[in-house]
Amino acid sequence: MSSSAPPPVPLPAHRRPPGRSPLLRELVGAVLRDERTAQRRTLADVAAGSGVSLPHLSQVERGGKEASSEVVAAICAALGLPLAELLRRAAGEPLDVTSTGTRASAAGFAVPAAGPTAHLSLVA
Question: Is the pTM above the cut of 0.90?
Fold first, then answer.
C-alpha cells in the first residue's frame, strides 16, 4: 500500500528562497484573500456564495491548491471582482483610467475607456 505525501504548503514571501518567484496560485490566492478581507467577509460567506467548499477556498487563498478556471470564476463572482481585475492585481500592473476617456494599456498606449471616466490608479 503506497501513501502519498500531502501537497507542499507554499512558503510565505519572507520565507521563500531567494530568487524564487511566487507561483501563479500564490498570487491569485493573495488577491482573493485581500479582496475578501477588504470586504470584511468571512471564508464561510464567500464559500457559500461561490459554491466552493470552505476548506477548498481556504487552500486556494493560501496558494496551496491550483484552482480551476471555473472555481476562480465562481469565487470572483461571489466577491464581485471581475476576472480581468484579479489578473491585473496578480500581475501587479496598475490600472490607470484618465479623465480624458482613455486608459493606459500595459504597453503605454491610450485606449478608449468604457463608461464614465475618472483618474484611478490601482497597484497590487
Answer: no
